[in-house]
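3.2 Worked example (two chains)
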Amino acid sequence: MRNGLKKVFPIFVLPTLAAFTIAFAVPFIGGIVLSFTDFTTVTDAEWAGLSNYIKAFSNGDFLNALWFTVKFTVVCVLTVNIIAFTLASLLTKKLPGTNLFRTVFFMPNLIGGIVLGYIWQLIINGILSYFGVTITFAAKYGFWGLVALTSWQLIGYMMIIYIAGIQNIPSDLIDAAKVDGASSWDILRHVTIPMVMPSVTICLFLTVTDSFKLFDANLALTDGAPGKQTAMLALDIYKTFYARTGWQGVGQAKAVIFFILVAAISLIQLKLTRSREVEG
């Protein structure tokens, strides 16, 4: 039986491996190579060494986008996960209408970022009009507008993951904690949170990566205005690559830096939360 599986194993693996190589590995390696060149198309690339990376790190717009993205990600990770966990805790109790509320909270995740961006632009500008300003009047309005939009979109999805984690907690543990005189806060700290750490790991990973990679909603809501102060990394890379003649190599270098940052932060977060899973 095992010998038979070994014989047919390449038949099943090769198509997937070929698709991965063609669609991901080759373009990825090619992108890294292009980041060290000056080019307009892949056929006219000229070696430029580290000059593109030097231009990227000396570019004020890129550094501002990096700092803006970091602040935005930290705030979104906190708001999304705290609110999602709170809603999951409430909706796992035997309350009337919980299934309806789960559906309502999850629905924003099904709407595309561009559509959400324009919807929230209308909502926020409608509110700000009473104060004689718009969302692009100052960077702080764009920042909190993006936080509100992203939180509203992601909370429902993370809530579903937390609900699955909470429902998998053995009821015997909670009953035993109550018998021992544990308060609701004690049960939350010492039973619920340690038992849902796998869900926390997943939700933190998704929130961090989704927040860092935000593009379409940023494009639709503020387009980086005013003065590129609300441009996030993905939008800055897009504008560098497509809106500045002769800066394609710099845009590619920014994309490589972007990938390294997201990968490093995600791996660190996974390592930290998985260690908490083991302790839990």
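3.2.1 Second chain
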Amino acid sequence: MKVLVFDRNSADEFKAADAAVEMIPDSAIIKDGKPFFIPASSDRWTYSCGVALRVCRLGKNMPEKFAPRYIDAYAPCITTKPVAAGGPNALDRCHEGAVILGEWRSPEDVPDSFEFYVGDALLAKIPVDKTLAARMVALAGSRGVMKIGDIIVMNEDCVAENLPVDTRISARGESADEPLLGFSVK
């Protein structure tokens, strides 16, 4: 399994030719509400909101019109990375908690957007764009094999930096009371 993270803001137009993508190991995923322990490798960390999708079929070179068949779920997610001197480095995204996943929802049950909170303060409202998701799956499949369980993070909207210990981050579907993602910074 692999995690592909598209380095883009959700408000930006997506251009496949300019797509910047990072591959993060699956060992860097935190799920099920487990806390994010700030790694000692940096004093400064960014927290970005995103929408993740999960691939449910083996495939490559799939046309965009068939790409939705390869997506079985969407989830809110947070990605973390150190503010690195000297630019990005693959080792900056190997830490546990580089990707923090919420609960998966089927394409039929996913809300139109996810709302992200720090405590009770709304940080961001990120739309779930299924057309864009299909484009990203098709792009990834044009460059390599997509496997069952692969995850694509469609965007990274940086919303916070250097959150203090015991900060609570959550996400819910638009107009929903029950959180789909929740964890604490430790």
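3.3 Remarks
The two ends are 27 Å apart (CA to CA).
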